[in-house]
Task: structure prediction
Amino acid sequence: MTANWLVSMAYFVVAVVFILGLKAMSSPVTARRGIMWAGFAMIAATVVTFFIPGLHNIGLMVLAIVLGGGVAWWSGKIVKMTDMPQMVAVYNGMGGGAAAGIAAIELVRGVEHSAMVSTLMVLGAIIGSVAFSGSCVAFAKLQGLMNKAIRLPQQNTINFFLTLLTFGLGLTIGYADEPSLFGIALFFLLALALGTVLVLPIGGADMPVVISLLNAFTGLAVGFKGFVLGIPALIVAGIVVGASGMLLTQLMAKAMNRPIRNIIFTPLTGAAAEGGEGPQGTMREVSATDAAALMRFGSKVIIVPGYGMAVAGAQHKVWEMTKLLEDAGVEVKFAIHPVAGRMPGHMNVLLAEAGVPYDKIFDLDEINDEFAQADVALVIGANDVVNPVARTDKTSPIYGMPILNADMARDVIVIKRGRGAGYSGIENALFFKENCSMLYGSAQEAVAEITAQIKAMEG
Result:
């Protein structure tokens, strides 16, 4: 029984555990278990790699693992939940960058490969570089370092020719017997520029879909590199991540009623959001006391969390308020839109951190019909996902996007930091409806005040 055979068998077992872990992540009840399985599988795959015969630079590999693992452990411990989208973007970028780095080393070494392997190596290099630079831009947008979407003149034409030039140069150096260092450097500069140019014009409203798409890119790049290196575990892990990321991207794009090509090539920027007829009427304010009374003496309340809740870190206060309402006999449910927040599942993660039971959290399709029977819809920081112009205004950029039917509740209370438009730049017609009232201020402070008023009513 050779060492190579044992390594291959170990990789096979690791691949199976990866798939089982991913399956477990499909449910909030088993997601933690799935993450643990996948984590242990990754550790096993890393350890097994050291038993490959003829391995070199073991000391450098151990040093890289210790440094990288230490940084990841430390950053994972200190990161705030509101900064989780940025961390996801960074991790996406690191995976893509690593795949591109492997391709760069293979090209510099000048190792001969078959036409198929060379093509996959070039594709992996391009996709990995795009994922890396695109994720850096996404991080800058999410962190507030880049507040405006930047769209170049003839943006789509530049995208097309830059992609064509990058892929053509990549194939040229990939098939060359001795590619020049200048050619390799130029190829990766073009690939990095491509990722930057693709993501620059995309606004915040599309960012959850972009993060999911970049995650899929990283998975595909890793899978291609696994094929080039002949490591089955990388192939399986990369392709599984890539395929699941693409499926998630498609589901989120469907939830916005926008094809993926439109998100990439016709992004919803602030400029685009200026279209559509503006809402008519005035915004009415409500006090925390009146908001508390409406919910305390109602029979059913549906809470719609959004990024404003995340920024304020108000999820724990929201859960405290929920428990008080339930103790008073009020039925309380949470409604989550697929693209609420800044990354896939953002609101679900925040609510789970606060201890909200999974059976109280419902997605759009499950709860939309219940808003008409709700006494109060409490919208906390959400904006575009409850904007009724998506149903009525054909000139609006978000027309046709499935939304949460918060406007159909008897009363709507919106907790919002200010009077400005949402992240997409579109004014929300819900705020001007007769059954809607605005409670201005930080979600943390507003919910805390409502909670205090509910306690006072209990006397």
